Amino acid sequence: MTLDKNRLELRRDLTPVQVDQLVDLFQQEWWTKGRQKADVEKLMRNAGPIFAFIDPLNEELVAFARAMTDGAYKAMIFDIIVKDIWRNTGLGRLLMATVMTDPLLSQVKHRELYCLEDMVPFYEKWGFTADLPGLFFMRQST
Ligand SMILES: CC(C)(COP(=O)(O)OP(=O)(O)OC[C@H]1O[C@@H](n2cnc3c(N)ncnc32)[C@H](O)[C@@H]1OP(=O)(O)O)[C@@H](O)C(=O)NCCC(=O)NCCS
């Protein structure tokens, strides 16, 4: 099967089978590894905008991102993942372009995400900056 991103369809929700595929995608990445299906189903019920690229040839989920926003000031973007065999085909660029031009997300004051240092050049392509003097990313865990 050729990997042509032009045939992919943007969907805003997942079928139960595609939720299983999302759980599988999550097992491949360091920050999502170990996520359980029940929690991913909870995520899908509560998440903000979902961006899912589906290959209509087999209804497979091949790229995913999600966001949370208040609609005015802040949007946080999470879990940006392209399925491994589809990487370096321009799909990551398409996924990010789709997120960044989303009518809801593009109108809020700040779009924010966090990432490892080696991903900074990737996100700089869309105008993200890590030049935020004095700000610290903080977390409290259960
Ligand atoms: C990061 C990721 C989404 C990129 O998707 P992709 O389909 O490979 O990206 P593309 O083929 O569209 O490449 C787009 C551009 O980003 C660049 N790029 C891709 N991965 C990169 C990386 N890890 N670091 C820096 N630049 C990167 C490409 O070189 C390309 O640049 P160009 O357009 O100037 O040639 C994908 O590699 C992925 O899912 N990685 C694992 C999950 C992950 O780390 N997500 C990000 C968490 S913060």
TrEMBL record:
GO terms for cellular component: cytoplasm. InterPro entries: Acyl_CoA_acyltransferase, GNAT_dom, NSI-like. The keyword Transferase applies. One of its GO terms (molecular function) is N-acetyltransferase activity. Keywords: Acyltransferase, Transferase. The keyword Transferase applies. Residues 9-142 form the N-acetyltransferase domain. Pfam families: Acetyltransf_1 (PF00583). This is N-acetyltransferase.
